[in-house]
# Entry
Amino acid sequence: MAESKTLNINMGPQHPSTHGVLRVELEVDGETIVRAKPIIGYLHTGIEKTMESKLYYKALPCTDRMDYLAPMSNNLGYCLAVEKLLDIDVPEKVKYARVCLAELTRIGSHLVWLGTHALDLGAMSMLLYAFRERELIIDIYEACGGQRMMTSYIRIGGLAHDLPPDFNARVQKVLKVIPQRLQEYETLLTRNQIFINRTKGVAVISAEDAINWSLSGPMLRGSGVKHDLRKANPYSGYEKFDFDIAFGTNGDAYDRYLLRLEEIRQSLRIIKQSLDGMPSGPYRAHVPGVVLPPKEDVLHKMESMIFHFKLVTEGFKAPVGSVYQAIESPKGEIGFYITGDGTPIPRRVRVRPPSFINLACLPALCEGRLLSDVVCSIGSIDIVLGEVDR
Amino acid sequence: MTEILKAFVNVIIKMPQGFGVTLKYLFRKPVTVQYPKQKIPMTPRYRGRHYLERYDDGTERCVCCGLCAAACPADAIYMEPEETANGERKAKVYEINLLRCIFCGFCEEACPEEAVFLGQDYEFSADNRNSFIWTKDQMLVKHPRKENPLKRIIRRVRRVYGVPTAK
# Structure
């Protein structure tokens, strides 16, 4: 009988460090990975197909459920895509509020990443601290949209409600608390020799490879490619904000850790600017037949009532054509490709999911390395399985 | 050599500083809440379990127009209309399947009468699936009303157009 030198083992789908139901098929030679193959599909819910069977405005809650750690970013991407298809413009206040919320989402998502990644590598307290700070951001979601995770707050043509009266105070609290806490995280991790040994030189990807794998977000910038859609292709008024692109040099997990902390700081800068510059005005565009009229009008104006009934029951007809709108979500470039065919239901909705495409480079990250580095590699990619499988 | 020296500094000086952070929180008040005993109040806009609203005189506000069912992305709402003695339309059956419901609040936004709204309750576990079909009687109960700036307007509309009474 031929003697096999390697051993096939399964990591996942029920593995605490695969952040959901990811299964990695590993071929190991002792402790060394010979071959790694991520196997996905355990969380497939057919979100794209579901969106193609719903009216444009009803498809919005589906987007919350893809990347459930960054619901506002997904809402924003979808709404911008539909707004592009319909060619409508939103008021200035909406743009500022959207930027503010998208950046809060980025902080929240990065905090979860930080907590879980550090937990994978053995730093338990980080998880508790990161989730404690995330609570502040989740509370803001709740005050805005009424739900803690599945917000559906950003709508086509504006926002669901006006910003809550205590919005400013809540965000000011985030601006005050997070920088101090970031200092603490740095004290805990940045010079922690165990953390450095586990992350430095691990999961390295060169700039050229990163581009060839079509990575985006922190995975791409960690390798030193200065590409950020907020700068390269500004949307929702990002060109008015002053911030820097954080980027790494070595392209390893440690660089990506430093980069994400820096991104949180840059996000705080953007939030501060958006709060200071927040203009007053309506929270919805005035586009009858596409955007719901104000409830006050519905109750005592005939035309508004008719528009309200028609919009809720029939939806709005989008023109024939295809649009692609990508935004910089916390994980990378999330893009929505929508084809309208003149009916109130999209013919095709395709999502370019950053987690899915970033995950594809997992074999390149961990082949030839040790078994324990797989955990670090998966963690530093920052995947959300809801978005990978959709 | 510098790497080793750096690691040495990290272990001797930097890592104890990290322990200091965790030690500091040992003497702080914990942020956790002892959930079943203590509860955090929900924000005014929180989207929990549904309620149906009545007018101040006790008549039902819902006229069974079906907009909430049309707006529901999860198709969780079922309703059948009937006519009252004075010729008004109202719901005979109004059911929300809480297992299908995704609590997006679209029904609340769609309702032209401000009749259905999502309340503040979030604890509704049960041991059988049938009890998640939330019926009209269960939703028409007294409840703490959510912040609603429209109530004033609805009152005004009622004042102008009159309150329907039995003939």
